[in-house]
Structure formats: structure tokens, C-alpha cells
Amino acid sequence: MKGHDRMRQSPQSSPSWLSTLSTMIKSSGTQELDVFCRRVLLVARTKWIMLAMLGVYGLCAAVSYAMSSIGFCFTTQQTTFLVLTALAVVICNLLTCRFCGTASQRTSLIHIQIGLDLLFVTILIHFTGGVASWFWPVYLLVTLEAAFLFEDRRDVWLIGTLGAALYGALLIAEAFHLLSEVVMPFVGQSLHGAFLFQALMWLWVAGMNATVAIIAAYLMDTIRRDHRKLKESEEALFGFISTASDLIFCCDAAGTILYANQVCRDRLRFDLGEYGRHSLCELVVAPDRDRFNNWFRRVQAESHTGHIEVRFTGDGVEHVDVEMSLTSCAREDQAAVVWGVCHDITERKQAQQELYKLAHHDILTGLPNRVLLQDRLLQARALAQRMSSRFALLFLDLDRFKIINDTLGHSVGDELLRLVAGRLKRTLRETDTIARIGGDEFIILLVNMHEHNEVAVLAEKILKSLSLPFSLRDHELFITTSIGICMYPDNEQDSEVMMKKADIAMYHAKALGRNNFQFYSDDMDQNASRRFVISNSLRRGLENNEFTLHYQPKVDISTNRIVAMEALIRWNHPELGLLSPVEFIQLAEENGLIMQLGEWVLREACRQTMLWISAGLDSMRIAVNLSGYQLQHKDLLTTVRTVLAETGMNPDNLEFEITESVIMQNPDFAVSILSEISDLGIHISIDDFGTGYSSLAHLKRFAVNTLKIDKSFVRDVDMNATDAAIASAIIAMGSSLKLNVIAEGVETQAQFDFLKKNKCNQVQGFLFSKPLPAKDVLALVRENRGGEN
Questions:
Q1: Residue 531: inside a domain, yes or no?
Q2: 786 occurs within a structural domain
Q3: Number of other residues whose CB lies within 10 A of the CB of residue 772
Q4: How confident is the model at residue 2 (pLDDT cuts 50, 70, 90)?
Q5: DSSP strands (E only) in 628-705
Q6: Is the peptide bond before 287 cis (omega within 30 degrees of 0)?
Q7: What is the C-alpha separation between 343 and 326, in angstroms, rounded?
Q8: Domain contains 702
Q9: Do residues 338 and 414 share a domain?
Q10: In this predicted structure, what is the pLDDT of residue 214?
Q11: How many domains does the chain have?
């Protein structure tokens, strides 16, 4: 950092040619007064020199005469007059120096002064021989003085004419003896009486004075015109520099700023009075200083123009990005300086950053997009190979997100995605990458992983974080997500294939009920192929009537009497055999066929129920599952009314089972639609209760009739105290709200005994019957009811 230290040294004195730059920026009127004043002072100093020379010459001449045989030739009166005249000239010159400013503002005083000078010269000529005096050329000096001081050539000609006139008046006064002649040695007395000599001398002096006046006026006019053009050019140059839109500055070899134009001062915020106090290097941001310092020295050493991009900063100044050009220049008798021109590229840099962000980040959430994710994956793979570690790729898809877009609008959906992105960033580590690759799909890159358990812990943390409610636009939304996980290098090493496998694992998580995570395994590839076949044949299955319904009974726990049936769809696939709804309901939702399929289920269940009622099972109620897409579809109520009218079904014999997670995804909307369904006389059951984070406050708002305890709480209810407590609490809550409570998944007598002891209303499960085809239901119900017809 020697160069940096050198640039921080005390500033050197600026070159004289650079110091003129500040005067160029002054107002033109003040500058002209200053220039005229300097001219007056220069003339005054010249007069001092001339007076000194004349004084020395006069003294030498007087001494020489006094010591010669001629003797001193002036009388006392003449000597006194000459001395007084000389004193008057000295006093005038002193006043000129003292009141230069006043004289420069009132040019008439300068005319008077030059007139006095001519008078003094005439007196001097008279006392040194008159027509034969040697001092007549002093007239020419006064004419030159006028040419130097006056810009108007007519003033110069006037002074030349006045000098000739005074000389002529002196000759006439001496010729007519109005003034007594002063006798000088070595001059013939006859010359004073020779008219021709006097005329020729006057013509000579007048002609020379006129010639000098004309030539001097012309030369000074030319000089002034050239000077004026040069000054105008310089003023134009420095005016351009001062008002240029670029940052322009000059600094000495140590880097101390000697001059900066207005834009530079404004952008970097320092004043004119602070020149010599700012080091150029100190204005450069710290990360760029070494690079700039080396380049600055190189420009000085090689005396060439260089270009560099740096960033300036300062007190209270936002960073200013510039493209800088430096040039080192010097004159033989002056110190070297460096001129810099900086083009402000801050906006261009910001635009480049914005373009980079647009190219590498998702516009909606600000998260990395697929392009940046690929780069991060390459880095993660290189790091994992070098450190012999693992990394994980998590594929997240929000469950039933399309419902929110369809019901609340895309603006709410977009805002929800932004909130999800923010929550993910707060949940995960800074070293992890969260990317949005489209729609409601997110990719998370977890680096420096060692065990599957570490990834599982973070995945569980994500699920819990996203399960908390989101509040936006007066809505309280609950969402869940399904996560597929692929590990490097365990599952795959190619990044594209890793994302595909994580996607497969995510769909496997959705198939297992959503709101969970699954690690990729090889057998999932077969499932992916199976999913592809199922997805492609869904529409054909509807057209070919390949679907059927199975029915599972619901039993009153106090009487063991079958009181209702739940309709469960099955698919008799021509290639894959009998398929459960777990394998195709989600695909139907994705393909947009869920409304067609749901309408078929509703119509078939109502038709079959009417057949059973006709057969004597008049108290039979049928339960039909309603998906989230059906619940929030605008044509749902119209479809329900149409099916009830076509089949003649009594709404009291129909029950809709809706999962708690679907209802809680948008509770406000659920309140509205459930009320409309209830107004039709249809019973409503909340399925999988206990998994959707609903509260007592929500239940009070919903128009529901039944709570169906999720089988996950029933499975170990006789062995697990926590499950037992949850089941008991749900039963108690349902009883207090006067709701029917049914437990699903009852498979053992111990489970049944626990539920009966805690006064659960109904049970459903393999303990009583598996789902049966419609043809077997009638016999089962009659057997349960003691053979009634």
C-alpha cells in the first residue's frame, strides 16, 4: 500500500496554469475590472522604472556638467521647477497605485493621468533644450502607454494627437518668446531661430507620434482580439468542464484533488473550499482501492490514457459507479497533474443488476429461478465432491393451491406465494437455496448434508412452518405441502435427473395423503410410469363407464345397527385391474376431470340409494366424499340440485364428507358454501378431523353435522395415551356442540370398546365390514337389522 500512502501525502502546490482555471469561472465583469487594474499597475511600475532611469541620467548629466568646463547650466529657478515637476509625476504615480480600483472603474481618470504625463514630458523637453531636446521620444512611450491601457483605438489616436499638439504648442511658445529658451550645451543657438528646423522637428515628432499611435493601436487591438478569442475559447472549455454532465476533476501526483466540476462536487458532496483536502483514492470504495491505486500509478508512469470502472463513495453519498478515464500531463516547468473524466454509469449498473436479477430470479417472489438454481447445483456438486459430503434436493408443491387461485383470484394466490417464499427463507439456513421454478412449485437445495435424518428434520420443519395460518386481505388461509427428496450422490448425480426424481418422490408424497415428505427410491419409477398410464386413460375410463362404487357401512355404536353407507369409488382399469381412489383422484384434480368424476359418483350414489330405499331400507343415508376442487367450483350447487331432482333423492338422506384440511384452506369461503349446502337439507361431515388445525371458533361458524375422527388417532387409541386423549377430546367437543361423532378405521374390539366407553356415536371400519359392491350391501344390511324387509 505504498502507493496508497503516497496518495495520502499533503498536497503539492498546484501549477500556475491550473490556478488560472479558478479565475476563468469568475464573473466576466469582475474579471474585466481586475484585468484593467493589473494593466494600470503594470504601467505604474513601468513609470517607476522610467522615472528611475531619467533620474539617474539627469543626476549623471548634472554632475558631469558641474565637473566640466561648461559648468552646471540650470538656474536655481529652473532646477526647482524640474524637481517639483518630478515630484508631481511621482505623486501621480503613487496615487495611481493606491487607487487602482477607482481608476479602473473611472477611465476618465486614466485619460487625465495620461494627459498629465504628456504635459510632464513637454515640460521636460522644454527644460532640456526645447526644439533641440533629446527627450522627445518619451512622447512615444506615453502613446504606447495609451495603446496598452485603452481598448478603443480612437483614444490612442487622441493621445498621439495631443502629444503632437503639446510639442507644437511648445515650439510656437518658444519661437514667439512666450517661454524663454533654455540654453543647453552642445546645441547651437541658431537652431532656436531656424523656422525650417522647427517645422521639420515638429513634423518628425508629430509623424512619429502618429505612426506609433496607429501601429500600437493596431498591434494592441490585434493582440487583444487574439487574447479575447483565446479567453473565449478557454472560458468555453472551462464552462463546458464546469457544466458537463460527466464528473471531471484534476489532481496532483499524490492524488489530491485540485479541481472538480460542479457535477463532481454535487455527486461526491464536497465544496470548492475543500480543494487540497480530498484524496481521490479515499473517495474510491475500499474493495476497489488497491486496483485503482495500481492503475493510477501506471497512468503516471507510462503517461498514457487509461480506462477503469470504479465505485465512488463519501459522507452521506450513495455509491456512484463510474467509468473513469485518466490522463497524465505536465509542462517542462510545472509539476505533473492527472486529469480525470468519469462517466456516471450508476443507472447502467443498476439496470445490469436488474437484468441479472430478472434473468436469475423469480419476478414474483424474488427467489432464485431455474437458471440460478442450476448454477447453485453445479457449485453444490463440486463442493460435495471436494468435501466428500452430500446435498439434498427437495421438490415442494403446495397442496390444492389451484383452489385458492380459482376462488380468491390470482392476486391473492400471488400474495400467498410471496408469503410462502418469505416463510421458507426464515425457516431454512442462509446457506440453503430456495428457488421457485413455476406455479406453486419450489425447489430447495440443502448443502453439506451427512445423513438422511438431517434432511428429514429440515423437511419436517418446513411442513410445520407452512401449516401455520397465513393472514392476507382479511382471509385466514391454511395450506399444506408435499415434499419429494432426492439425495446426492445416493440417488443420482446429474442435476436434471435429480429434479425429476425429487418430483417423482413429491407425487408419491401426494399419493400418500399429502402434507408429508418422501425420499426417492427406485421403485417410485415404476409408480411414475403407472401414474402416467392412469393419467392418460382417465377420460377414456369415464367415457367407457369403467368406474364403480363400493360401500362401507357406518354403525351406531350403541345399537350395532348400520345407519349409513359411505360411497367409495373404484376403477376397473382394463390394464391395471381394480384401482383405489388414492391412485387417480389427485390425477383427476390435475387433469380437470374431477368435476365430471364427482358428478358421476354423486349421481350413482343417489341412484343406488333410491334402489335400496325401494327395497325397504328407507332409513339409509349415503355419504359422498367431496374434494376441495368440487367444493370451490362455481357449478357445485347447480350440479347437486340437478342430481337430486333427476334421482328423486331426499336431501336428508345425503351426506357430504369434506376433509378438514380442505375446509381450513379457506375458512371464510367454507363458511359460505357449507351454509348453502346445509340450506338444501344435506348433511355435512368433516372428514379426517384432527389433522387440519381447525379450532372450536371455526367449528362454531361451520354448518356441519358430523365430526369424523381420523383413523390415525384411532389406530393406537387403546395403547397410546396421546391418541386416546385426542380422541376423547374430539368426542367431548362434538357432544358439547351437539354434533354427531364417528370414528373411522376401527379394526379391533379394543378400539371399539374404548370408543363406546367414551360415548362415540358411530364407528366405521374393517371390524364390521370392508367396502362392498352394491350387490352385496342389501344382504349385509338385512342381516344386521335382523332380516327386515
A1: no
A2: no
A3: 17
A4: very low
A5: 654-659, 683-689
A6: no
A7: 12
A8: yes
A9: no
A10: 85
A11: 4
Angle, CA of 453, 459 and 462, to the nearest 5°: 145
Higher per-residue pLDDT: 443 or 59: 443
Report the amino acid identity of residue 746: V
Residue 259 DSSP symbol:
E
Same domain, 748 and 650: yes
Are residue 230 and residue 249 in the same domain, yes or no? no
Rounded to an integer, what distance in angstroms lies between the CA atom of residue 228 and that of residue 624?
101
In a domain, 5, yes or no: no
Same domain, 367 and 228: no
Outline where DSSP puts E strands in 421-516: 433-438, 441-449, 470-472, 475-477, 481-488
User: Which of 25-34, 159-168, 721-730 reaches the highest mean pLDDT?
Assistant: 721-730
* Closest C-alpha among 765, 639, 773, 766 to residue 708: 765
Q: Which long-range contacts (CB under 8 A, 24 or more apart) does 495-498 make?
A: 495/374, 495/377, 495/378, 495/381, 495/393, 498/377, 498/393
567-583 residue pLDDT tens: 999 999 999 999 999 88
Domain boundary among 218, 236, 254: 236
Q: What is the CATH number of the domain that holds 508?
A: 3.30.70.270
Helix, strand, coil: what percent of the chain each, to 5? 60, 20, 25
Range scoring the smallest mean pLDDT among 558-567, 690-699, 730-739: 690-699
Mean of pLDDT values over 648-674:
88
The answer to whether residues 658 and 704 belong to one domain is: yes
CA 492 vs. chain centroid, Å, equals 39
Q: Poorest-confidence range of 291-295, 361-365, 440-444?
A: 291-295
Q: Structure pTM?
A: 0.60
Q: What is the 3-state secondary structure (H, E, C) of 416-437?
A: HHHHHHHHHHHHCCCCCEEEEE
C-alpha to C-alpha distance for 666 and 408, rounded to whole angstroms: 9
Pair 517, 619 in one domain: no
How many other CB atoms are found less than 10 A from the CB of residue 268? 20
Which contacts of 323-332 are long-range, i.e. CB under 8 A and separated by 24 or more positions?
A: 326/295, 326/296, 326/299, 327/299, 328/299, 328/300, 328/303, 328/304, 329/303, 331/15, 331/17
β-pair type (762-764, 740-744):
parallel
Pairwise CA distance, residues 429 & 626, whole Å: 39
One-letter amino acid for residue 7 of the chain: M
Q: Summarize the confidence of residues 747-773 as an average pLDDT.
A: 94
> What does the CA dihedral 763, 766, 768, 774 come to, rounded to 10 degrees?
100
Domain end point (choices 206, 236, 266): 236
Mean pLDDT in residue range 580-599: 89
Query: In this structure, are 137 and 83 located in the same domain?
Result: yes
Strand segments (E) across 459-546: 470-472, 475-477, 481-488, 517-519
Q: What single-letter amino acid sits at 603? A: R
Bridge partners, residue 683, by sequence:
655
How far is C-alpha 438 from the geometric centre of its chain's CA atoms? Answer: 25
Q: Which grid cell sits at 510?
A: 401426494
Of 75-79, 123-127, 156-160, 634-638, minimum mean pLDDT range: 75-79
Whether 287 and 417 share a structural domain? no
Domain around 225: 20-236
Q: Is the pLDDT of residue 99 over 80?
A: no
Q: What is the pLDDT of residue 343?
A: 87
Enter the DSSP assignment of 274: G
Q: What is the CATH number of the domain that holds 705?
A: 3.20.20.450
